[in-house]
Amino acid sequence: MDSHHQISQEITASSDxxxxxxxxxLTGFPRVASSDLEVHFGREVDxxxxxxxxxxxxxxxxFPLRRQRVIPLMALKSxxxxxxxxxxxxxxxTSAGLKEREGCxxxxxxxxxxxxxxxxxxxREGVDGAFAPIAHLPYGETTFKRPTGRCSNGLLMIDxxxxxxxxxxxxxxxxxxxxxxxxxxxxxxxxxALDVSFFKERGIMMPYTNSSLNVQLEWxxxxxxxxxxxxxxxxxxxxxxxxxxxxxGGNDYNYAFFGGKSITEVMNYVPHVVTSIINAAKxxxxxxxxxxxxxxxxxxxxxxxxxTALNSSDPDAYDNRLCLKGPNTFAMLHNLKLQxxxxxxxxxxxxxxxxxxxxxxxxxxxxDNALDLGFxxxxxxxxxxxxxxxxxxxxTKMCGSPGASxxxxxxxxxxxxxxxxxxxxxxxxxxxxxSGGFVYPSYGVQEKWKCWYRIGESLS
Length: 460
Known about the structure:
Helices cover about 40% and strands about 5% of the residues.
């Protein structure tokens, strides 16, 4: 039995179906309200709304946050179980009565990014420091029962995307014994959008990996050289492939902040980061890609790592969700500039489907509906695995390190280790991105990606 089928069965049988590294004190963010950043961001919001009116986006939902209608708890649980069963039947295809991949348009996934998507590249490069524990339990404990190099207790969003497209899990490029018939994962935990030279010139330390986005692109080119006989052959092979260009860029900012750079200086990095992401998208398009997803950044001010590092006695530093305003506003600025650049990219390549994945608002919607989704109300801002404290995050006792402990109920936590999410949270995020309107423009895309199956007379 292959791992894809085995994991699908384990998920089906489950009773409950449903990047960064902090190495020291953040000195870059001001503890007072980041009014300068908010003013700067406010001047830019109207530009994004203008793009919304001319590009037929289903929703940009960046500002203000879209609210979801809340269903009563018992009704929601019943509905979720029904929906989840149908989701398994339609997408996972675990029963013998389902025909494999009938009518599926996407035949491969190629992924570039960081720890949000890495399925095992960093641990094959060699990992030490704060990332060292990902090579050991409790990482991977929930689903795989062993560490795989994923920065979570189980599956990531890319895994759920593969399952939804009835594809095998996307193997890491550095696993030279892996099967790459249905795509390759080039993402590396700790990876950056910008090259090492950018950080060295500014005195910023790169502690975990040199596998930047450009390095990952070189890996991709080497892979194509090994499977393509010509440029035309490559274009044909990539015609039915989905490219995930990110999420990446979060570590570029984190390394700068952790290195003591001011928020004013790091704001100047945003155009460089966005340009690197867009240039990577152009490269894969020029090599034959015609289906791209480019994700934005998470609301980093809601993560236990940032909440711990920037703990403030000033109530104005927090929003009504108890997330930090300053880091979240910075993340929104990055996302705004990225979406502007994506719109220009669409205009340059009208024959290519280029989608923006709204990780920011998908996460916020999860947070707003967390209680009805089964998360523990007292653990929304706490890591499941960590070294203690108000948010169960301690940079000197990271998850998996001596002195850290793991919660008994990861499925009731949003945060796994203070930096990354739990399998449960990633599953809900993936569902929202696949079918919840947080990837746009989405008109016609879901039908194109959909897989159809023949359902037998019985499911067993």
